[in-house]
Amino acid sequence: MTSTLRPSPPAPPNSPQQAQSPAPRSPRRRRSWRQALRRDWQLYSLAILPLLFFLVFRYLPMIGNIIAFRRFKPGGSIFGEYWVGLRYFRMFLTDPTFWEVFTNTLVLGTLTLLFCFPLPIVLALLLNEVRARRFKRFVQSVSYLPHFLSIVIVAAMVMQLTSIDGTANQLVNLFGGDPVAFLQKPEWFRTIYVSSEVWQTVGWGTILYLAALTTVDEDLYEAARIDGAGRLRQTWHVTLPGIRPTMVTLLILNIGSFLAVGFEKILLLYNPLTYPTADVVSTYLFRMGFQSSNFSYAAAIGLFEAVIGLILVLSANVISRRTVGTSLW
Fold first, then answer.
1. Residue limits of the ABC transmembrane type-1 domain (predicted)?
2. Has residue 17 got a pLDDT over 60?
3. CA torsion sign, 238 to 240 to 242 to 244?
4. How many Cβ atoms are within 10 Å of 81's Cβ, its own excluded?
């Protein structure tokens, strides 16, 4: 016997089969930016002042970089008198003083990055292990306070501590040594500068890391404890990978400001005796521009510094994305 399969007859209208079939979805209409602005104008209005700040103090001053390629004279045109091309770039590239200053900038930037970047992570990990809330808040408050002090106050405190009659020399006298004029010795300037940076910035830098530590899943710690991991192994395999995106983001931002070593503090602490180790690109640029009135030469140096900083940020971002998988963009 042979059997043939016949197609089932179509279901009558308003049957359960037709009721169960999903209706075709209409394409979702995207709201235009005008509709979004009309709906959430209160939120967008909050961005007006920050945008104006960046426009006036960050983007409009970029127009002044034109004087790096033109001869500028005080009292003349703000865009320079006549075109000179790459003359000022050749001047500082062949100037041995500039390369000495550039070397000092690299050394101070490297020391600052080596000490001021990992120490906030270490302090945040230590504070995360503290269970006494009062002691934890006390340590946080004490470590945060130096960040709110003015650079002028910090520089004055450093000068007082390292003066001939200061606390540092009192300790030297206590151990039978002779007083040392620390701020007049080139070999001591880098130690003093980096130490003051650590004291002023480490506590404030822990805020982001402590916030990042709160996002780490507690179940991961529980699983690590079940596997027999101690506190150090939990920190290495759970905590540090959990805050790695924050670490990478801050590292890229710090590399971007690598050449912009603390201009204000160095300007207040250094003197002609410490120029061999204290003079950096920003202070050299300040002297060339405002003391020597060579604004075009200073603009060329500043543009060179900005281009180097941009290259460092882009390179660090690419390396981080390819090796760690985390980047700014």
1. 102-316
2. no
3. negative
4. 13
Write out pLDDT tens, residues 105-142.
Answer: 999 999 998 998 999 999 999 998 888 888 988 988 89
- 199-255 tens-digit pLDDT: 998 988 898 898 889 888 888 888 988 888 888 888 888 999 888 888 888 888 888
Report all structural domains of the chain as residue ranges with CATH numbers, in order of start: 87-324 (1.10.3720.10)
Judged against a pLDDT cut of 70, whether residue 9 lies above it is answered with no
Name every residue whose Cβ is closer than 8 Å to that of residue 98 and which is 6 or more positions away in sequence: 92, 284, 301
Among 153, 140, 91, residue whose Cα is nearest residue 288:
91
Main-chain dihedrals φ then ψ at residue 71, nearest 5 degrees: -80, 115
| Per-residue confidence (pLDDT) for residue 1, from 0 to 100 | 41
* Residues 328 and 252: beta-carbon distance below 8 Å: yes
DSSP string of 216-267? S-HHHHHHHHHTT--HHHHIIIIIHHHTHHHHHHHHHHHHHTSS---HHHHH
List the beta strands (DSSP E) in the chain.
70-71, 82-83
- CA distance readout (Å), 15 to 8, 18, 20, 48: 14, 6, 9, 58
Bridge partners of 70, per DSSP, are 83
Q: How far apart are CA 195 and CA 269, in angstroms?
A: 13
Cα–Cα dist 80/71, whole Å: 5
Whole-prediction pTM value?
0.79
Three-state DSSP class for residue 71: strand
